[in-house]
Specification:
six-stranded parallel β-sheet, alpha/beta, 6 strands
Protein backbone atom coordinates (compact mmCIF):
# COMPACT_ATOMS: atom_id res chain seq x y z
CA UNK A 1 0.00 0.00 0.00
CA UNK A 2 1.35 3.40 -0.92
CA UNK A 3 1.71 6.27 1.52
CA UNK A 4 -1.18 8.05 -0.19
CA UNK A 5 -3.35 5.05 0.51
CA UNK A 6 -2.62 5.32 4.22
CA UNK A 7 -3.48 8.98 4.42
CA UNK A 8 -6.99 10.39 4.53
CA UNK A 9 -7.62 13.90 3.32
CA UNK A 10 -10.55 16.02 4.49
CA UNK A 11 -13.15 16.73 1.86
CA UNK A 12 -13.20 20.31 0.66
CA UNK A 13 -16.25 22.01 2.08
CA UNK A 14 -18.29 24.04 -0.41
CA UNK A 15 -17.94 27.78 0.04
CA UNK A 16 -20.90 29.21 1.88
CA UNK A 17 -23.19 31.92 0.62
CA UNK A 18 -23.37 35.21 2.49
CA UNK A 19 -26.19 37.65 3.17
CA UNK A 20 -25.65 41.32 3.95
CA UNK A 21 -28.52 42.95 5.84
CA UNK A 22 -29.19 46.69 5.60
CA UNK A 23 -31.72 48.33 7.92
CA UNK A 24 -33.89 51.30 7.07
CA UNK A 25 -33.89 55.01 7.85
CA UNK A 26 -33.60 55.89 11.55
CA UNK A 27 -33.26 52.21 12.44
CA UNK A 28 -30.42 50.01 13.73
CA UNK A 29 -29.16 46.46 13.08
CA UNK A 30 -31.30 45.25 15.99
CA UNK A 31 -34.38 45.73 13.81
CA UNK A 32 -33.02 42.98 11.54
CA UNK A 33 -31.99 40.56 14.31
CA UNK A 34 -34.82 38.07 13.81
CA UNK A 35 -34.14 37.97 10.09
CA UNK A 36 -30.40 37.56 10.71
CA UNK A 37 -30.85 34.69 13.16
CA UNK A 38 -33.20 32.81 10.83
CA UNK A 39 -30.84 33.24 7.90
CA UNK A 40 -27.94 31.94 9.99
CA UNK A 41 -30.03 28.93 11.05
CA UNK A 42 -30.65 28.34 7.33
CA UNK A 43 -26.92 28.07 6.66
CA UNK A 44 -26.01 31.55 5.46
CA UNK A 45 -23.07 33.66 6.61
CA UNK A 46 -24.74 36.86 7.78
CA UNK A 47 -23.39 40.39 8.12
CA UNK A 48 -25.98 42.62 9.82
CA UNK A 49 -24.72 46.07 8.91
CA UNK A 50 -25.21 49.22 10.92
CA UNK A 51 -24.82 52.61 9.28
CA UNK A 52 -25.62 56.23 10.29
CA UNK A 53 -28.69 56.62 8.08
CA UNK A 54 -29.41 60.23 9.13
CA UNK A 55 -25.95 61.69 8.62
CA UNK A 56 -25.26 61.75 4.89
CA UNK A 57 -26.54 61.42 1.35
CA UNK A 58 -27.55 58.08 -0.16
CA UNK A 59 -24.51 57.71 -2.41
CA UNK A 60 -22.08 58.29 0.46
CA UNK A 61 -23.95 55.97 2.82
CA UNK A 62 -24.03 53.24 0.17
CA UNK A 63 -20.35 53.45 -0.67
CA UNK A 64 -19.35 53.35 2.97
CA UNK A 65 -21.76 50.74 4.37
CA UNK A 66 -21.77 48.29 1.47
CA UNK A 67 -18.12 48.77 0.58
CA UNK A 68 -17.02 47.93 4.13
CA UNK A 69 -19.44 45.00 4.43
CA UNK A 70 -18.12 43.39 1.24
CA UNK A 71 -14.58 43.58 2.65
CA UNK A 72 -15.44 41.70 5.85
CA UNK A 73 -13.34 38.49 5.95
CA UNK A 74 -16.35 36.22 6.47
CA UNK A 75 -18.12 37.82 3.49
CA UNK A 76 -15.02 37.78 1.28
CA UNK A 77 -14.82 34.02 1.86
CA UNK A 78 -18.33 33.48 0.46
CA UNK A 79 -18.92 32.14 -3.03
CA UNK A 80 -21.97 34.34 -3.46
CA UNK A 81 -23.26 37.39 -1.59
CA UNK A 82 -26.96 38.23 -1.33
CA UNK A 83 -28.64 41.28 0.21
CA UNK A 84 -31.78 41.65 2.32
CA UNK A 85 -32.78 45.25 2.88
CA UNK A 86 -35.44 47.28 4.62
CA UNK A 87 -36.76 50.55 3.20
CA UNK A 88 -33.82 52.94 2.58
CA UNK A 89 -31.43 49.97 2.59
CA UNK A 90 -32.80 48.89 -0.77
CA UNK A 91 -32.02 52.26 -2.32
CA UNK A 92 -28.47 52.00 -0.99
CA UNK A 93 -28.03 48.70 -2.85
CA UNK A 94 -29.42 50.20 -6.05
CA UNK A 95 -27.08 53.18 -5.69
CA UNK A 96 -24.01 51.04 -5.01
CA UNK A 97 -24.52 48.62 -7.90
CA UNK A 98 -25.82 51.17 -10.39
CA UNK A 99 -22.42 51.36 -12.07
CA UNK A 100 -20.61 48.47 -10.40
CA UNK A 101 -20.33 44.80 -11.27
CA UNK A 102 -19.46 42.16 -8.69
CA UNK A 103 -19.32 38.54 -9.90
CA UNK A 104 -20.28 37.36 -6.41
CA UNK A 105 -23.51 39.37 -6.29
CA UNK A 106 -26.39 36.98 -5.81
CA UNK A 107 -30.01 37.88 -5.17
CA UNK A 108 -31.52 40.89 -3.44
CA UNK A 109 -34.73 40.95 -1.41
CA UNK A 110 -36.03 44.43 -0.68
CA UNK A 111 -38.58 44.86 2.10
CA UNK A 112 -40.85 47.92 1.76
CA UNK A 113 -38.44 49.88 -0.46
CA UNK A 114 -39.35 53.38 -1.71
CA UNK A 115 -38.21 52.40 -5.20
CA UNK A 116 -40.19 55.26 -6.72
CA UNK A 117 -40.03 57.50 -3.66
CA UNK A 118 -42.76 58.44 -1.21
CA UNK A 119 -45.44 61.10 -1.35
CA UNK A 120 -44.83 61.71 2.34
CA UNK A 121 -41.52 63.37 1.47
CA UNK A 122 -43.22 65.38 -1.27
CA UNK A 123 -45.77 66.77 1.17
CA UNK A 124 -43.95 67.23 4.47
CA UNK A 125 -40.27 66.65 3.68
CA UNK A 126 -39.59 70.38 3.78
CA UNK A 127 -40.80 70.72 7.38
CA UNK A 128 -37.91 71.53 9.70
CA UNK A 129 -38.61 68.66 12.11
CA UNK A 130 -38.98 66.16 9.27
CA UNK A 131 -35.74 67.35 7.66
CA UNK A 132 -33.98 66.90 10.98
CA UNK A 133 -35.45 63.44 11.58
CA UNK A 134 -34.81 62.12 8.08
CA UNK A 135 -31.42 63.67 7.45
CA UNK A 136 -30.01 64.17 3.95
CA UNK A 137 -30.76 60.63 2.73
CA UNK A 138 -34.39 60.65 3.81
CA UNK A 139 -34.99 63.92 2.06
CA UNK A 140 -33.80 62.40 -1.24
CA UNK A 141 -36.76 60.01 -1.26
CA UNK A 142 -39.43 62.10 -2.96
CA UNK A 143 -41.37 61.00 -6.04
CA UNK A 144 -40.14 63.65 -8.49
CA UNK A 145 -38.04 62.81 -11.52
CA UNK A 146 -34.99 64.32 -9.82
CA UNK A 147 -35.46 62.32 -6.62
CA UNK A 148 -32.66 59.81 -6.12
CA UNK A 149 -34.71 56.59 -6.49
CA UNK A 150 -36.02 57.78 -9.85
CA UNK A 151 -32.55 58.63 -11.16
CA UNK A 152 -31.04 55.22 -10.48
CA UNK A 153 -32.43 53.57 -13.60
CA UNK A 154 -33.60 50.02 -14.13
CA UNK A 155 -32.61 47.49 -11.46
CA UNK A 156 -29.73 45.49 -12.94
CA UNK A 157 -29.57 42.53 -10.54
CA UNK A 158 -31.88 39.67 -9.53
CA UNK A 159 -34.34 41.37 -7.19
CA UNK A 160 -37.53 40.50 -5.35
CA UNK A 161 -39.71 43.04 -3.52
CA UNK A 162 -41.97 42.37 -0.55
CA UNK A 163 -44.14 45.22 0.66
CA UNK A 164 -47.14 45.74 2.92
CA UNK A 165 -50.66 47.13 2.65
CA UNK A 166 -51.26 47.64 6.37
CA UNK A 167 -50.60 50.95 8.12
CA UNK A 168 -50.24 52.06 11.73
CA UNK A 169 -49.52 55.64 10.67
CA UNK A 170 -52.88 57.05 9.64
CA UNK A 171 -51.47 60.57 9.11
CA UNK A 172 -49.01 59.37 6.48
CA UNK A 173 -51.67 57.14 4.95
CA UNK A 174 -53.89 60.17 4.42
CA UNK A 175 -51.11 61.65 2.28
CA UNK A 176 -50.34 58.50 0.27
CA UNK A 177 -52.77 57.61 -2.54
CA UNK A 178 -53.94 54.01 -2.81
CA UNK A 179 -52.79 51.14 -0.63
CA UNK A 180 -49.76 51.73 1.54
CA UNK A 181 -47.79 50.49 4.53
CA UNK A 182 -47.71 53.82 6.36
CA UNK A 183 -44.60 55.08 4.55
CA UNK A 184 -44.66 53.91 0.94
CA UNK A 185 -47.50 53.11 -1.45
CA UNK A 186 -47.59 49.56 -2.79
CA UNK A 187 -47.41 51.02 -6.30
CA UNK A 188 -44.18 52.92 -5.60
CA UNK A 189 -42.40 50.04 -3.88
CA UNK A 190 -41.63 48.25 -7.14
CA UNK A 191 -39.52 49.31 -10.11
CA UNK A 192 -38.52 48.20 -13.62
CA UNK A 193 -36.19 45.21 -13.36
CA UNK A 194 -37.86 43.63 -10.32
CA UNK A 195 -38.13 39.86 -10.92
CA UNK A 196 -40.84 39.01 -8.37
CA UNK A 197 -43.17 41.09 -6.24
CA UNK A 198 -45.60 40.38 -3.39
CA UNK A 199 -47.91 42.52 -1.29
CA UNK A 200 -48.52 41.11 2.20
CA UNK A 201 -50.72 42.35 5.04
CA UNK A 202 -47.85 43.83 7.07
CA UNK A 203 -46.70 47.28 8.17
CA UNK A 204 -43.61 49.25 7.18
CA UNK A 205 -41.87 49.33 10.59
CA UNK A 206 -42.26 45.62 11.35
CA UNK A 207 -42.24 43.87 7.97
CA UNK A 208 -38.81 42.33 8.59
CA UNK A 209 -40.04 40.54 11.73
CA UNK A 210 -43.00 38.80 10.09
CA UNK A 211 -42.62 35.01 9.82
CA UNK A 212 -44.16 34.81 6.35
CA UNK A 213 -41.93 37.63 5.12
CA UNK A 214 -38.87 35.81 6.45
CA UNK A 215 -39.97 32.55 4.79
CA UNK A 216 -40.60 34.35 1.48
CA UNK A 217 -37.19 36.02 1.74
CA UNK A 218 -35.33 32.74 2.19
CA UNK A 219 -37.31 31.15 -0.65
CA UNK A 220 -36.28 33.95 -3.01
CA UNK A 221 -32.63 33.76 -1.99
CA UNK A 222 -32.66 30.02 -2.74
CA UNK A 223 -34.89 29.90 -5.81
CA UNK A 224 -35.13 33.36 -7.37
CA UNK A 225 -38.91 33.49 -6.83
CA UNK A 226 -41.27 33.93 -3.94
CA UNK A 227 -43.50 31.07 -2.75
CA UNK A 228 -46.26 30.32 -5.23
CA UNK A 229 -49.71 31.02 -3.74
CA UNK A 230 -51.53 27.78 -2.94
Amino acid sequence: MTLCGLLTFPKLLPAKEGVILLHGLCRTPSSMTKMAETLEDSGYVVENVGYPSRTDQINTLANDAIGKALEKPQIMACSKVHFVTHSLGGILVRSYFQKRKDPRLGRVVMLAPPNQGSEVIDQIGSWRLVRWLNGPAGNELGTGENATPNKLGKINFECGVLTGDRSINWINSMIIPGKDDGKVSTKRSTSPGVKDYRVLHVTHPFIMKNKKVIAETIHFLRNGTFIKPS
